[in-house]
Amino acid sequence: MSKLPNVGTSIFTIMSQMAAENNAINLSQGFPNFPVDFRLTEILSKLASENVHQYTPMSGLPSLLEKIAILTKQSYQRTVSPKGEILITAGATEGIFATIQALVKAGEEVIILDPSYDCYEAPILLSNAKPIRVSLNSDFTPNWEKINNVVNKKTKLIIINNPHNPTGKTWSVDDFLQLEKLVDSYPNLLVLSDEVYEYITFEKKHISINERSKLYERSIVISSFGKSLHITGWKVGYVIAPVNIMIEIKKVHQFLVFSVSSIAQHAINEYLDIVDFNSIRTFYQEKRTLFRNLMSETKLELLPCEGTYFQVASYAAISDETDIDFTKRLVTEFGVATIPISTFYANGDDHKCIRFCFAKDDKTLVQAAERLLKL
After folding, report:
1. pTM, full prediction
2. What is the full DSSP assignment across 95-151?
3. Domains of the chain by range and CATH?
């Protein structure tokens, strides 16, 4: 009997397969198709012949942990201990998995805010705990009335994703005040904050848990070098948590992977001395502006995009099809692969919206828009 009976082939795999079969432009999966910074590849090439190929310490390369502490201080004015409060993980996904496995016990409940990324639910189920799916408002802001109505003494964790995949929405100060009030009311409630797109925001920077001192002792923050530095295939992320919580997370981490790719950690460690994280924001803002300008001539309605490298669009004025049927037709008839938003909901809620990834080179974005003009 399967421990995850409802898990099948992901929509991301399905759409990418359809894109390949139909020679379509793939704006479905969330990874860049442009080269990484040549300075990083030069560092990697140099390191290949050096003695950096054996295990690093379980928590991570000590010098990289120290630089993450410095980056956190520079970005959020939060002081964290490199030795006790930071853990290098095999991507954000492993950080999320290890956190949930370490902290959530059988019979407890975890709140997931839909639409949500698909990696949250599986480790909850594998813990014999119960995922509680709560839909966001129609503008993809948190519905605090709904959230407060489902939190109880069994609720161990609430998972937030800010900036938000798939919608590109960011939280407001009032949202964090509501969260702090909720945490105050339930002494056993912890917050898992998925902030992998933290350096990809636009008109305003996102508000991080790292800036909310009232939440420090009750929160786990997940970050991703893969997303921030355009190196998703390296699978290097990190977790920030208070020492007492981190001790438990490390217990699980050591039996999942023990340590993360040594050469990748060494390369990122050197690269952090020269990379400007503000340039990452500027780079993706230019991508977003280009894509939105190209798409403005289509019949699709573009929703606000405050962060991430995803753009959500409504096709309600074009078709009454389900979003799954519409995205499949986009591939077969127009040659562009996207993701239907309903697949991010537990109940398959269909808002007639689809998600584009604009982390692509300019030529790809131009060609995709030209095809979508035919809608």
Report:
1. 0.96
2. HHHHHHHHHPPTT-EEEEEES--TTTHHHHHHTT-EEEEEEPPTTS---HHHHHHH-
3. 11-30+277-372 (3.90.1150.10), 39-271 (3.40.640.10)
